Amino acid sequence: MRLARLGLALVCVALAAPAWGRPFTIDDLLRAEEFGQMGFSPNGRHFVFERLGPQTQAGPFNQDVYSGYRRSRLYSLDRLKLGPPEPLGAPAPGDGLVAGPFSPSGDQLVVLRLRGQVWEAGVCDLLSGEVTWLGVGPELGLLGQTIVWRSESQLLMAARGDHLAPLRLRIGGEMRQALSDFWARAEAGWTPAINLVGSGRYLSLRPKAPQGRLVQVDLPSGEQTDLLAADIYDLEISPDGRFAAVMALGEDLQAPPDQLLRVASASRRRNLVMVDLDSGATSTPCADCHLDTHLIAWAANRPEVLVHGQRGRSGPTPATYLRLSWDKVSPVPLSGLRPVVGRTSEGYAIPRAAWLQDTPLVLAEPAQGGRADWWMISASGPQNITASLPSAPDPIVRSAPGGAVLVRAGDEAYQIGPSGPPSRSGARILAMAPPPGLGLSNRHRVNQLPEGAWFVTSDGPARTVLRSLMGKRFTSLAAPDEVTARAVSEAGLAEIWRAPSQTLTLRLQWFDQTRAEAVRLNQAFEHVDFAKAEAIHGLDPNGAPVRHWLILPPGQALKRSACEGGEPPLVVIPYPGASYPTAPDPLGRGIGRYSANPQLLAAAGFAVLIPSLPRAPGQESGRAHV
């Protein structure tokens, strides 16, 4: 017993030796800042980034998990001007400013402002930093693109039918207010404290917000033209700029009684409307279509769109690929093939298809079983264009110069044209850099990525190199495990580093190797004793490897646990569907970061386990084995 006590005393003395910093506190968490979107302009002159201020400046807190929209401010760096970043838009206290897409030239940027409950689009002149507000509130680009530049002087937007912020930015506050109203009605006892949603023969009684519209804005004159009255969630302009393919919500749909309702279950028909932007005429090529999200692909040289979905109004039919023109519907023949369709975590479909110039390209596998490959569906029948690759290709294609596409297979990238065999990129690829640009929708991030592919390669264990398809290269400024976000284009490379002290540093180098002044956040954290995350390896339900993360109390807190009785108590922070190939962001946005922050728990002497619980898309349960 005396030896055990002596051993524990020696442990306590040993733990007391290091000069630890102060513990992480709630005030630290609420003062933490982050970086948001960042990107280079198409002309290579401007670099714009979002800086998300502390939670202490983010009120009112009625955005649920979308508080970043309220906290965001915009800054710009000009390659032709030396100095610190310049703020854009002159926001009033409480305003949130979010970046939308650059104009074709890159000298203008769409800016989105959240002021109170009002969401408004404006256009920022990046040379002066001034914003012209348009009085239009676009829908959020969560499922698709809702703001598109037609030219340097014309904007196309899927506008809301009211002046309020989109529902996703109001749902937290409105839900709490609705509950309060229900309790008040229940207490009074005069009216039912219930919420009615129409179904069956009462389907048409479902409440709806004011109808949205497709609006074209002429920036020099300020004139706004309504082109279509519809609730729009996605749009894409044809390559020649004449037509817009618009995904809109139609009539209410009755939920099938034999199917589970998911987050992605459609409550309204989704269909495509074509708009002639010159004449204002509209056409619905497939009146009985119900289309999936995440695919609107224009052919290169003809006014034809590739989509995926069901046909018929009498009941569900198997989904298929369709070619839609102004007045014609043509099914894509997939005889002998079974399409591979991805899913988001909420269950929305991601049809894996694109165009190889004017020929549909579909990810599919033989109906009798076999490897998934990319198939070109021409008039002569399906042709497997990736059969010669040594491994199965990625489910995402990227646009490449000359009407070709870029496909990754294993650690190689291959460029594929309408004829001839695939050509190798010639370098071992560790990863593909994220698509360039600001204000990209989820569709552009997960399907048929825009042209401008960059490869993440390596010159050695500590040298990460980014290389473009055109041969441009940048050498990373940091060790590979320090970079948490990256933006790269022909103009330059920007990286966000996270130090062990949880300080964040934005470093940027232009194409001529000129380096901009670094931007650092959370410098007060250099004196904080943070807990470290240790990986625990396990398996998911299918036997695939996953990583879980164990966070032990840092120095002083671990010493206190050891000297007061042994092992620290354990707190588990699970979330079905969450998977962590790398250590979770200890301070940023995301599940549990504020409601159950692991660093705060560790500072209080708890060990924290954050498990990876992968799930099938659209399901609410997740399992894994440690």
Structure write-up:
This protein has 626 residues and is mainly beta. Among the domains are: 109 residues, no CATH class; 173 residues, no CATH class. Helices cover 11% and strands 37% of the residues. It has seven helices and 44 strands. Strands 17, 18, 19, 20 and 21 form a five-stranded antiparallel β-sheet that branches. Strands 22, 25, 26, 27 and 28 form a five-stranded antiparallel β-sheet that branches. Helix 1 runs antiparallel to helix 6. The chain is globular.
Rg: 26 Å
End-to-end separation = 35 Å
User: How many strands in all?
Assistant: 44
Quote the average pLDDT: 87
Poorly predicted ranges: 1-11, 13-17
Tally of alpha and pi helices: 7
Strand content: 35-45%
Largest sheet features: 5 strands, antiparallel
Overall outline: globular
Helix content: 10-25%
